[in-house]
Amino acid sequence: MTTTRQHSDELHLALYRKMFQIRRFEEEAARAYAQGKIGGFLHLYIGQEAVAVGAVAALEPTDYAITTYRDHGLALARGMTSRAAMSELFGKVTGCSKGLGGSMHFFDAEHNMLGGYGIVGGHVPLAVGTAFASKYREDGRVAIVFLGEGAVSIGDFHEGMSLAALWKLPIVIVVENNEYAMGTSLSRTLSVEDVSLKAVGYGMARDRFFANHVLEVHDRIGEAIERARKTSEPTLIEVRTYRFRGHSMSDPGKYRTPAELEERKQKDPLMVSRAELEGKGHKEALEKIEAEIEVEIEDCVRFADESPEPGPELLEATTYKGAFAR
Amino acid sequence: MSVMRYREAVRAAMIEEMERDERVYLIGEEVGAYQGAYKVSEGMLERFGPKRVIDAPITESGFTGISIGAAMVGLRPIVEYMTWNFSAVAFDQILNNAAKIRQMSGGQLHVPIVLRAPNGSARQVGSQHSHAMEHFYAHVPGLKVLAPATPADAKGLLKAAIRDDDPVLFMESETLYNMKGEVPDDPDFVVPMGQARVAREGKDVSIIAYGRPVHVALEAAAQLEKEGIDAEVVDLRSLRPLDEQALVRTVQKTHRAVLTYEGWPYGGVGGEIVDRIQRLAFDELDAPILRVTFRDVPMPYNAKLEQYVLPQPDRIADAVREVLYRKG
Ligand SMILES: Cc1ncc(C[n+]2csc(CCOP(=O)(O)OP(=O)(O)O)c2C)c(N)n1
Question: Is B271 on the interface with A (CB under 8 A)?
Answer without folding.
Answer: no
